[in-house]
Write a structure and sequence with these properties.
224 residues, alpha+beta, four-stranded antiparallel β-sheet, 8 helices
């Protein structure tokens, strides 16, 4: 037996020696389920004011448990681990993640499953708490008021100058986002930062030929 055979035998024995017991498997399953359920509750709490996707949240719960089971299986035997890597490499996820926060929770669930599957329970619990605190602190930090969209409709396209003068009086920042002109009609969408919302709308309505004026809040991209 040469050195290559000895190295190969020792390497395979290190992976084939299954140190997993029923007690350790149950411990991993229980801790993973608790951590995954904690992520489930955290996602529901963070998204209480936004669009809540229950099926996605349920998938987070199952994903952590499934990931820990995969890690346990990989630890048992190198042949199984290589076969599982090959099997998982053909899986393609086509679902687009629209909210960046959903991507954070998705990676959090997978990471927690890996940590629990490797029996690093303390790391999974401590860092889950740290992630939760970080998200809550970021949510509670005071931020500047987001700009709004001002929609103005007029029966005469010649009074755009008057509209912009009124907007300039009440708004600290403003930018025309859209302008639709016809022979006898004007539609404008202006991104504004304004404090006196009611006063601005009332002043615009008083202008000649202005038929409607409204302010709309939005959570999309802004330019200032």
């Amino acid at each position: 037996m040469n050195f290559a055979d000895i190295f190969k035998s020792t390497f395979l024995q290190g992976y084939s020696s299954n140190g997993l017991t029923t007690k350790s498997i149950l411990m991993v399953a229980i801790v993973t389920a608790l951590v995954s359920f904690y992520i489930f509750i955290a996602y529901r709490f963070v998204n209480k004011k936004a669009f809540y996707n229950k099926s996605f949240n349920t998938s987070l719960l199952a994903l952590g448990i499934i990931t820990s089971a995969i890690i346990l299986t990989i630890q048992s035997n190198i042949v199984i681990s290589l076969g599982m890597v090959g099997a998982l490499s053909i899986v393609r996820f086509r679902t687009a993640v629209k909210d960046p926060m959903d991507l954070v929770f998705l990676f959090w669930s997978i990471s927690a499953g890996i940590m629990c599957g490797a029996s690093c329970f303390g790391i999974a619990i401590v860092y889950s708490a740290i992630v939760t605190i970080g998200i809550l602190v970021a949510e509670w930090l005071p931020v500047a008021k987001a700009p709004q969209i001002l929609l103005v409709n007029s029966d005469c396209h010649s009074n755009e100058k008057q509209i912009m003068e009124v907007v300039g009086e009440y708004c600290s920042l403003y930018k025309v986002k859209a302008r639709n002109l016809t022979k006898d009609h004007l539609d404008m969408a202006i991104e504004v930062k304004v404090k006196g919302e009611t006063e601005l709308v009332n002043r615009l309505i008083e202008l000649e030929n202005v038929t409607s004026a409204s302010l709309v809040s939005h959570n999309g991209e802004v330019t200032f």
